[in-house]
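Minutes, project check-in

Agenda point 3 was the complex the collaborators sent over. CS summarized: two entities, 540 residues total, and the question is how they sit relative to each other. Sequences were read into the notes so everyone works from the same version.
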Amino acid sequence: MTRKALSQALPLIPSSVMIGVFFLIPFVLILLASVATLTPEGDMAYGFDLSHFERFLSWFYIQRALFSAGMCALIAVLSLLIAFPFTYMLTTFSDRAKKIWLIYILAQLSLSEVLIAFSWQILLSRTAGLGNILEWVGIAEKSFAMAPSAGAVIAALVYLAVPFAVLLLYPALSRMDRSLIEAARTLGTSPLRSFFTIVIPVNRSAIVSSSVTIFVLTLGAIIVPQVLGSPEHWTLSVLITDQAIFNFNLPFASALAVVLLILSASVIGLVMRFSGGEK
Amino acid sequence: MKLLRNSYLALFAIYLVGPILVITAVSFNAKKFLAFPPRGFSFRWYAEIFVANDWFAALMNSLLIAACSAFLAVLVAIPVSYMAWRHGLRYAKALFSLGIAPFILPPVIMALAFLLFFANVGMHGWTINVIIAHAIFLLALPLVTVSLGLESVDMSLIEASQTMGADNATVFRTVILPIAAPFAFAGFAFCFVLSLNEYIIALMTVGFTVETLPIKIFNALRYGYTPVIASIAVVFLVINVLVFSLIAKFSNLSRILGAMD
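CS then shared the predicted structure for the full assembly.
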């Protein structure tokens, strides 16, 4: 028995060490750093100092946190609205068409946020963007730059989130029991009506969990708000980067990271509980 | 109804592919300034990736880091997934959940955690930092794909080979490995692509010493427009498409994405 237990434990040692040393310890370090003191020389002294959280509790940072949460919630809703009908149709495509779409969507989803930000910077620019088309069609008198603005940040983040939304909804929708729809159709329900009365309610839990995932995902966006927004559109993630890399204030960056962690964890927990309680 | 459906599909396709098409058009622009529709046609900005030393060096850094971290992630994932599946060890399952966590957290949190860790142990800006950091961050991917591969192994095949006298090592080599290997490859490929495109963790671990391609692009963006970025975007998209086509060809993409077979 002990030999068996030993032979089962041995292969797990390297992986345990890797995960323990490079995930658990760094994670604990963030918690420690968030209550550490910044010495006048710019070094960090571990201790128990809540001043960074007090600093967060000023209106400026509260406002930034609320702005981040509100914007990401809006993006989650928008990207699901765009992606849900498509994903529903995708499950009815031929295997070959399905495969091609999935490959393309995966490829775009993996494209660096830096490159997405760049392409939207071009799309929204004065000289080579949508403004030109508006001018050409005659809607706008003269082409204009659409970034930096909150709209530009939201547009690019929705674009970033849509492929994720498709892939998050895809398993539930492709496993959905089609006989329900067929039954409704035989009974004379219109396709559009059956979509709203059957497809959406049946997949409610997938919709909820996908929107939470998208919310957390966009909370993590760093480049789009910097490239396409002005500082008042910066999200918590950008502020954390800014504090850590450019202000060398690691304790405050860690405190903000803890806030971000609590924010995303509580949204996940709340929604899971809410959607679980309904069943 | 059909019209509604088709026009929605067309709009969706334009929305998804449109920005990529604009970038592709811009990347073939002959002039240095930004223009759409492009003026002239040239491969100049594609050649620039390989001719300009700094861009080429960044590309090589990124490829090296992506390959090493993907390999490391698969190595760490295999024993965990295997032990959880074969022996149902509770410890392995706990390790599995722990390994998924870094991927779910907002990346900036992990980035900051790695920054603190490597600063504390005195490894300042070593290339290996970002390799380890990416491997841990992306560990969830091979964990999931390898588990999926193992779950598709038919237990009766294992029993059959055992009754015919195969020992554990032989069962692993002749039954489990051939079925699970494509899924391990898929995990490698997912990690490779995501590491190649990752920005914030690379910035916080090696940002001041090693320039990866996403870091270099972001730095270039702050100093204004460079057409090379457009050509890199196209090259990256092509790489992504190629890698995912390979996954689709050699393992079961639908299954990995969680759909029914």
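Noted in discussion: Chain A has 14 helices and two strands.
Follow-up: revisit at the next meeting once the mutant set is ready.
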